[in-house]
Design goal:
Two copies of one chain form a homodimer. Chain A has two domains: 257 residues, L-amino peptidase D-ALA esterase/amidase (4-Layer Sandwich), CATH 3.60.70; 121 residues, Ubiquitin-like (UB roll) (Roll), CATH 3.10.20.340. Chain A is 33% helix and 25% strand. About 1% of the residues of chain A have low confidence. Chains A, B: InterPro entries: Arg_biosynth_ArgJ, ArgJ-like_dom_sf, ArgJ_beta_C. Chains A, B: This is Arginine biosynthesis bifunctional protein ArgJ. Chains A, B: It catalyses: N(2)-acetyl-L-ornithine + L-glutamate = N-acetyl-L-glutamate + L-ornithine; L-glutamate + acetyl-CoA = N-acetyl-L-glutamate + CoA + H(+). Chains A, B: Its main location: cytoplasm.
Chain lengths: 408, 408
């Protein structure tokens, strides 16, 4: 099945090189395709690393190893395999990862645990060691490439290349952050894992990089949903080479820490939204803004209940301002809510306020808003000061076609 | 939009009258349709009542009142309105319910709180008191009718009438249980609430009827899902008239308590499965059997995570034995699981065992099984003795058509 570029796609941005990061891609031919499917990022000595991983109880070997590796705080290389997720492959899967780590560590003269590996694609088939070996060998000898080649190389069922860039000033020093990501939902026989990588030349203490990434994750990657399904391999890694020469950021008291955290959050949010924009069958990008919850976590839970509701998502696909379905989704979220204080707006127009339909509600501007590609849905719970924004896409015939009609 | 009868529909069963229960239906014309949409069940004095209700935080007035009413333990009447759910209508909605209660109580010479009311249909519009008054007056004067007329009268977007029957022997006395139910998902502008009513001539202490109904609910109504969405009005009520003259069942020590509980469970399971069989767009009825969980609750949570996964449901719609998506759903359930002990079978054939694909896995019988209408999916977690079975349907283009293409 030929996948068409998502109507919500955005062009790949201009992104500067990051000193201390060298990108290369190669053909491991994990699938019967003629494209680069192995991505290699070489990182200079002293690079800090942080990561967030899927909470799946059935995570892949790559995730199990990665969780341990980021604790050490430093990394020298990243390898991403596209076309085979190496998930549900037992000890053979783990051996394949360890072979890649050994091969790269040998070439770079670093420790095997400083080589991070991600894989995405078909599950239940151990990553073929011979293909991986040849792919890694090819990547080690390849010419360096740019961000978009790397972004394309990590893709599987994605319909466009995804990248994001931000800058921050730390003292007198300008630092750059560049990120790439893949993910579009989950599609048979692949599991379209979300894999995101952020690189910066800033000098950041690993423990604090982890703290900032975890915080950003809660407001960005953890606030998106395409179909509510979670891959066994979802991973976001951040690498900081330190080559910008800024005064090292070690905590919130460090000069520029806030600016760096804001830039990191920016890149994470843009990357997260790009995944939604490539959601399977998506025709509309939906922002669900929840306010008035007892706290931010509760607001996020309500937002995700709305964003995961098939009835809300199909209503928006049908350009129907069906606030009754939003009431239903709020009710089922399992979070504190009061029916008689609930207000709901589409495109800034309140359809229901304080638990009652708005009497002089004019559907004309709402109908026009819903015909657009960018939908804004606001829910005010009226019981507290917690807020969160969650992003999702609509649920269309395209989703069913991709996931049901297509046979593995 | 004309809804076609579900391909998974079953014929309405033969069901005997229940002594102490008189059914009548009438036209309240809550919508612009020519059909009975108000159902009245008159119950003899001394009828015990028990109920389970939606856990929605935005429940309707009917649910709020009902939760309190069943605590008294006795009921004399049930009124069901179809076409208007009276949800999200504030104090005016509550007044409409209280007016119905007063009118029926006046006619029967009973207390207003002995009159239970349910409503299903469009939300955000207070139940029109004049239509309700005329409808109730009509029902009070109507000729008694049979089970299928009552079942048809409570329907909204259902595509077939749903009933279930079971018997039990208590001592020397045979008692009958008859149930009707409506629900098919949730459809704009209606919320296709699940409303179920079970009537028996057995003599049962109200508190114990509640205990048995709550227990049955956990293994039946709480084990079905069409789209993971929960109505603000879901309700199941059980009424026991006591006219069979059995030795009153007051607890598990009472003779026949186990037999009665088994029959009640039977009726609940059949009714619950009928709702799934009328799931919007459903083409396959799916049983998800989970075993080897740490406990039964955990097994049910894993089962619901699988049954609610759009990726699992679309795979089955596509007749694809995609066990990788099942692994994914198990992983995201948030329940204890061990990737390397997980086994998955379709139609009794293991596709994966102990965390690895089965080496000599023959897909031929599985492909044949998936072409059928009744799909069996078994998941063995291998870490405990907990088990549960959950029922759902597949996710098809029909669901999208009903929920997105149809405009309110």
């Amino acid at each position: 099945m030929e996948l068409q570029t998502s109507p919500l796609a955005l062009p790949f941005p201009d992104m500067p090189p990051i000193e201390g990061v060298t990108l290369r891609v190669a053909r491991a031919r994990y699938k019967n395709w003629d494209r680069c499917d192995l991505t290699f990022a070489e990182l200079c000595e002293g690079t800090s690393v942080a990561g967030v991983f899927t909470q799946s109880a059935c995570a892949s070997s790559e995730v199990e190893l990665g969780r341990e590796q980021v604790k050490s705080g430093t990394a020298r290389a990243l390898i991403v395999n596209a076309g085979n997720s190496n998930a549900f492959t037992g000890y053979r899967g783990r051996e394949a990862v360890e072979a890649i780590q050994a091969q790269v560590a040998d070439a770079l003269g670093c420790g095997a645990l400083e080589v991070l590996v991600s894989s995405t694609g078909v599950i239940g088939v151990p990553l073929p060691k011979d293909k991986a070996r040849e792919g890694v060998a090819g990547a080690l000898n390849a010419e360096p490439c740019g961000w978009e080649d790397a972004a394309a190389s990590i893709n599987t069922t994605d319909t466009f290349n995804k990248g994001a860039h931000a800058s921050a000033i730390i003292g007198e020093t300008r630092v750059e952050l560049c990120g790439i990501i893949k993910g579009s939902g989950m599609i048979a026989p692949d599991m379209a894992t979300m894999l995101g990588y952020i690189f910066t030349d800033a000098d950041v203490e690993p423990a604090f990089l982890q703290e900032m990434l975890s915080a950003a994750n809660l407001r960005t990657f953890s606030c998106i949903t395409v179909d509510g399904d979670t891959s066994t391999s979802d991973t976001v890694l951040a690498f900081a080479t330190g080559k910008a020469g800024n005064h090292r950021i070690t905590g919130w008291d460090s000069p520029g820490a806030d600016a760096f955290a804001a830039a990191l959050n920016d890149v994470c949010r843009t990357l997260a939204q790009l995944v939604v924009r490539d959601g399977e069958g998506a025709s509309k990008f939906i922002s669900v803004r929840v306010s008035g919850a007892v706290d931010d976590d509760s607001a996020r839970a309500v937002g995700l209940a709305i964003a995961n509701s098939p009835l809300v998502k199909t209503a928006i696909a049908g350009e129907d301002a069906n606030w009754g379905r939003v009431v239903m989704a709020v009710g089922k979220a399992g979070e504190p809510a009061d029916r008689d204080k609930l207000s709901i707006a589409f495109g800034g127009v309140w359809a229901a306020r304080d638990g009652l339909p708005v009497e002089d509600y004019d559907e004309t501007p709402v109908a026009k808003h819903l015909k657009g590609q960018e939908i804004d849905l606001a829910v005010e719970l009226g019981i507290g000061a917690g807020s969160a924004t969650v992003w999702t896409c609509d649920l269309t015939h395209g989703y069913i076609s991709i996931n049901a009609d297509y046979r593995s």
